[in-house]
Amino acid sequence: MAAFVTPVWASSASVGTTPRTLGASGSCVLRPRLRSAGRCRSRAGVSRLRGERMRSAMESDTVVDKADAHSLGTGAPASPSAPATVAESAALGAAESKNGSVREGRKEGIMRLAIPSKGGMADETKALLKAVGMDLVISNPRQYIAKLRDVENLEVWLQRPSDIARKVANGDVDLGITGHDLIAEYAGMSQEIVTVHEDLGFGACHLGIGVPMGWSHINTIDELFAEYANAPEPLRIATKFSNLGERFFAEKGFSNYRFVYMDGALEASTQMGTADIILDLVSSGVTLRENLLKEISGGMVLQSTMQLVANRTELQKSKPLLGVARELLERIEAHILGADQYNLIANIRGASPGEVARKLAKGTVLRGMDGPTISMVIPPQGMDEGMYAIALVIPKRLLYRAVQELRSIGGSGVCVLPVTYVFEAESKRWNQVERALEL
């Protein structure tokens, strides 16, 4: 049975620290510092006060999961009446949202979209929204609420990526842009999450196991398990993805391990002696190597990228929200598809549009998306043969081959233009969303 180790820094036993509890919406509630009239309370008073606050939180239906019980400094799991897992917490939040207890502060008819608040993912998300013509408008940079240009009744909330996953599952927000890894970790068991777009084109990484480079005899997951299967001490794993890690090891049939929870700088934990291995996100692998760690074969838990997700219940009951979700999806789809295409325009001599079409048919990449567009050009005075202009959309990677083929059939004046959007006849992703919602 896997255990969960509480780091020393998670303890709040010292006077003057700020314990925290996890509310039903997933947000942290900071407790006031335990000081009075400039003097510290006695240890007995602190313990008694902390116990009273814990009981008060439980009696008021405050959700405290395993990790948060540790952060309160108790070192014990939450009350039996409180959810023991993130999935149960999400389920409780979803139930509360239906009753309106989580949404008391929301005005009638207001929809909510949550996006990352800081860092590279925030910058990429803002750039995507701008590229699809739905610019983010922030009236006060110190606030965490904004709006999208020309979109009525939609609040945009800037949140931590992990909180976005929780709050979409709970129904605190209707739509969210966050990583698949965080959705799987914090809301993976929730039936309230609907994936609207599975890959927004940025934030690609994977969750994998990193072991010390000095372990030359361990290069596969099976070798790691064999090394620790009957070891007297469990394998210590530094991670912040305990739910995904627990499911991964359960599927592999490995149980002699325990998690050491860390928020960041996991790569340093093996050299510090805090953990034996790490389970963390990897993009290029450079950070792993610079900290004397290596990946092992079979140690990848899941692939991740940024996604657009929605709350199932809210989509099912709100037509305006369905409209916003569909427009956002189709704009993103069209932008991503268009970003990989070029529009080619060229002149070709020919006696008729049919002859020009037959010339184009000889090429391998000159058919365009649904066929080329051919239109007549008024020929210069004195020319016996007509001139036609052709236009076609091709993938960027085929650009030079297309130019060569156009030259081979008499093409000239080839112009290459960027493509902003490509809207297809219908959105297959939206059709999938409607089927998932049973609309």
From TrEMBL:
Residues 160-333 form the ATP phosphoribosyltransferase catalytic domain. The keyword Transferase applies. InterPro entries: ATP_PRibTrfase_cat (IPR013820), ATP_PRibTrfase_CS (IPR018198), ATP_PRibTrfase_HisG (IPR001348), HisG_C (IPR013115), N-reg_PII-like_a/b (IPR011322), N-reg_PII/ATP_PRibTrfase_C (IPR015867). One of its GO terms (molecular function) is magnesium ion binding. Residues 365-420 form the Histidine biosynthesis HisG C-terminal domain. Pfam families: HisG, HisG_C. GO terms for cellular component: cytoplasm. Its EC number is 2.4.2.17. One of its GO terms (biological process) is L-histidine biosynthetic process. It catalyses: 1-(5-phospho-beta-D-ribosyl)-ATP + diphosphate = 5-phospho-alpha-D-ribose 1-diphosphate + ATP. It comes from the Eukaryota. Keywords: Amino-acid biosynthesis, Glycosyltransferase, Histidine biosynthesis, Transferase. Pathway: Amino-acid biosynthesis; L-histidine biosynthesis; L-histidine from 5-phospho-alpha-D-ribose 1-diphosphate: step 1/9. It is an enzyme of class 2 (transferase). NCBIfam families: hisG. This is ATP phosphoribosyltransferase.
